[in-house]
Amino acid sequence: MDMALITNVLSAAVIAGTPLLLVALGALVCERSGVLNLGLEGMMLMGAMVGFAAAAVTGSLFAGVVLAIVAGIVMSMLFAFMVITLAANQYAAGLSLTIFGTGLSAFWGAGYVGSTVSGFESISIPLLSDLPVLGRVVFQQDALVYLSFVLSASVYLLLKFSRAGLIVRAVGESPESANANGLNVLTVRYLAVGFGGAMAGLGGAYLSLAYTPLWSENMTAGRGWIALALVVFATWRPERLVLGAYLFGLASILHLVLQGLGWNFPTELLAALPYVVTIVVLVMLSMNPLRTRLNTPLSLGQPYRPSR
Amino acid sequence: MLQLERRPVASPAMQWASPVIALALTVITGFVIFSAMGRDPLSSLTYFFITPLSSAYGWAELGLKMAPLLLCAAGLTLCFRAKLWNIGAEGHFLMGALGASIAAVQLQEQTGLWVLPVVLLVGIVFGAFWAGLAAGLKNRFHANEILTTIMLNYIALNVVVYAVHGPLKDPFGFGFPQSIMFSNSALLPNLIPGTRLHIGWLFSLLAAVAAWVVLARSFIGFQLNVLGQDSRAAEFAGFKQRWLVWFAFLVAGAMAGLAGASEVTGPIGQLVPQVSANYGYTAIIVVFLGRMHPLGIIAASALLALTFLGGEMLQISMNMPKSITQLFQGLLLFYLLISDAFIHFRVRLKPAAPEPRQTSATLAPQES
């Protein structure tokens, strides 16, 4: 393999990893507050569909991205109402949002199958993009990739150093204590779920406006679920999430690389690689239950009703 | 101000009223959606819910769609009762279809009554194997079963797509990704002549009854229930949790595998990539709508089967996207879970008298 090929592969891995990164960042914040959102796949699909439709109608990519985020937030508020206000089972509620989002996006987007928009194009950062390898991989990407860099850094800093981050973590570890300290657990969780929904919508928009600028039914192909696995992989830490997302991005383009290298292996089987990698990674990380328990937000998945 | 208040005991009436409320809300939402699309809402709803059942053939088609849903749902009921979140029925189903197709293609030249049972059995084994993978990963490595089963679903789909493009591809199929048509000895016999209803429908009813017997009348069913209600109690009682996981997953896999096998040896007669119309995922809705009760899921599977027929009917007669089926299914589950909240809570107009703070322990997490 020569340098140019490596550069191309790494650059493609960053692009393929970006939708995962965006969705997983939202999921991470949401889970840190104690809410497990299994509806991400549906929210991502709604983001992809609404974003594409809005861009196709208005001709503005910016409008597409904004409306995709709004779609994600609306979906996540439905979820939040179920699991926070009504204290419904988070697994079942999340699944219902995934099924609902899949159905609604397929139905609503049926008229947009086959249309095209001109998607986001890569922007070279002057000087920096001339660096060998790194320049192509990091500084010659589209606007949403740069946005994902900024968002990753912000989530890392805010969670670790800010008061807001501390509140989110406190609510996720012990809602009872947080409540006793005068924090409004339900509001914090609503905001965290909303952020998760916004990021899922943005991740969906990345797929339909940058990664492959088109809309097709079920185009997320399980990325919302892989993002959930990524959060486990990252043991709920943003800095590991970034690394994980690009590794998964690499896994999901590997079949194209191997094909390009002339490997004679059935494409259909290689396309299953990201899913296999997800399982392998999950297994490796879950082997030690103690480690999982130490890292998981304590109240994850449990409904909370404040006592009055 | 409206306020949610926990009921002293869960409301059994609401438990069974909830699916009816959810259906009513779904119909109302459907009315709004059709109106917003500029279609006549009443005739659209009639086409969706009534027209498919206006003939004997329609009822047979209902049974045809019911069979895979009910088979998948019966197995999932065992898992969900024990709070084992097996989302993998879709994958079990696909592997069952693949296994049965491999057997049917291998036995193409054979005739005799033994061919069909062998074909179905291979499907069952494939389905159970696929579920067993998730069970093994959970038992041995503590891997979260939701994520592993979802990933296994996608892998199963890729394997099926590979099979119909590669080893199982019909050499004379004009390049279409599909297997050869199976010989008659590998096809399920029809129940009613002139319709497509096959004996797979009877399998599904049997599966639901079997699930009922297990859950209501057997010790292992009791153990599954205890595990679901309080896993620590199950541990203290000395129940072998690993065996329960194996049991629930393998049965779910076998049943969904049979569903897949019945689909390729029944109405389709060959392996195609679209062999599952999302049956495995829809079965999850069936289980919740049927109140995780083996007999409740019979009624629920009939209703969900109707949404498939209704979607096709709207596509044919009113030229609407077929995905209206998924939309209605999603709405149904969504409303169901919302009205389910009122099994445990009720709405009060004014805040009740302030309770002593000690009660917070009893208000703590209701379920995990």
What does this structure look like?
The complex is a heterodimer of chains A (308) and B (368). Chain A is mainly alpha-helical. Chain A has 14 helices and two strands. Chain A has a single domain, classed as ABC transporter involved in vitamin B12 uptake, BtuC. Chain A has a two-stranded antiparallel sheet. The longest helix of chain A is centred in the N-terminal third of the chain and has 30 residues. The radius of gyration of chain A is 19 Å and the shape is globular. Chain B has a domain of 218 residues. In chain B, strands 1-2 form a two-stranded antiparallel ribbon. In chain B, 52% of the residues are buried. The chains are: A mainly alpha (308), B mainly alpha (368). Chains A and B meet through helix 3, helix 4, helix 10 and helix 13 of A and helix 6, helix 11 and helix 13 of B.
Short structural summary:
Helix content of chain A is 72%, strand content 2%. By secondary structure, chain A is mainly α. Chain A has a single domain (3-295), classed as ABC transporter involved in vitamin B12 uptake, BtuC, CATH 1.10.3470.
Order of helices and strands of chain A: HHHHEHEHHHHHHHHH
How many strand segments of chain B?
Answer: 2
Number of strands of chain A: 2
Content of β-strand of chain B = under 5%
Q: What is the makeup of the main sheet of chain A? A: 2 strands, antiparallel
What quaternary form is this?
heterodimer
Distance between the termini of chain A: 65 Å
Give, in spatial order, the strands making up the sheet with the most strands of chain A. 1-2
